[in-house]
Design goal:
With 250 residues, the protein is an alpha/beta fold. Helix content is 44%, strand content 18%. The protein folds into two domains: 122 residues, 3-Layer(aba) Sandwich (Rossmann fold), CATH 3.40.50.1400; 114 residues, Rossmann fold (3-Layer(aba) Sandwich). A four-stranded parallel sheet has the order 2-1-3-4, with helices on both faces. It has a four-stranded parallel sheet with strand order 6-5-7-8, with helices on both faces. The longest helix is centred in the middle third of the chain and has 18 residues. The two termini are 21 Å apart.
Length: 250
């Protein structure tokens, strides 16, 4: 019997957990599988082991483990597989299939364009976009965020688009914001490439508030519960049904 386990990042912030759960519930409703559960990597319950146990107790014999992650980094390559290898030893009779993060997709970059438009603020010719990624020690993260920045520049027509990071990579968000405010830009649109609200978004808000400037700084909404995000995650689920040999956890 098939089961699906959605693995979200987790947060100490109640609002962030509820937003993630609400999003996943909206995707669950579109997938015709009876056994579907949500768990978290850290900072919230249930964890991976509890999520698997719940599905197994309900009769699941094949479980698609779906990372609710934007990009391929440490959580995807290391944390989830290590935990699942331990779980697999406990349930050797269960077939575990591993999905992929959403990755770089034009329809997701288009959401960023929408988030800018939703502010209702007309962009000046010298306006700058600052795309803010989470950051990771995995080199693919910088490649992916840079690609998103280039695509957003092409789709919006902004002359100035830079990327920065909240951790591990350079430039840091704080440095990039400072440089942007010191440069000849009358407006800076801060575009977080974050799925849900949480500590990182609050950090962005705090840093913006701490800067005294006569420039217009516009913080855009995160990706959130957008129909394109729902469709992208739903596709990752169905991929594990169609191509299981490529997605075993080893």
């Amino acid at each position: 019997m098939r089961g699906i386990l959605y693995v979200s990042h987790g947060s100490r912030i109640y609002e962030a957990r509820k937003e993630a759960e609400s999003f996943i519930h909206s995707v669950r409703a579109q997938i015709d599988v009876e056994l579907q559960e949500i768990c978290f990597l850290e900072l919230a319950k249930p964890d991976l082991q509890q999520g698997v146990k719940t599905l197994v107790d309900q009769g699941a014999t094949e479980i698609s483990v779906i990372p609710v992650l934007l990009l391929s980094a440490g959580h995807y390559f290391r944390d989830i597989p290590e935990e699942m290898n331990t779980i697999n030893e406990k349930y050797p009779h269960i077939k575990f299939l591993y999905g992929k993060p959403l990755g770089v997709q034009s329809r997701l970059t288009n959401i960023l364009k929408e988030r800018i438009q939703e502010t209702g603020i007309r962009a000046n010719k010298d306006a700058k976009i600052l795309v803010v990624g989470r950051g990771s020690y995995n080199p693919q993260t910088e490649i992916d965020i840079s690609s998103i920045g280039r695509e957003l520049k092409e789709s919006t027509g902004f002359d100035y688009v830079d990327v920065c990071y909240l951790a591990a990579c350079r430039p840091s968000f704080e440095d990039a914001l400072q440089q942007s405010l010191e440069a000849e830009h009358s407006q800076v649109f801060i575009v977080p490439y974050l799925w849900f609200t949480g500590v990182l978004e609050k950090y962005i808000e705090e840093k913006i508030q701490n800067h005294s400037t006569n420039k217009q700084v516009v913080l855009c909404h995160h990706l959130g519960n957008h129909p394109a995000m729902q469709e992208a995650l739903k596709e990752r689920v169905y991929e594990t049904f169609k191509y299981p040999l490529q997605l075993y956890i080893s």
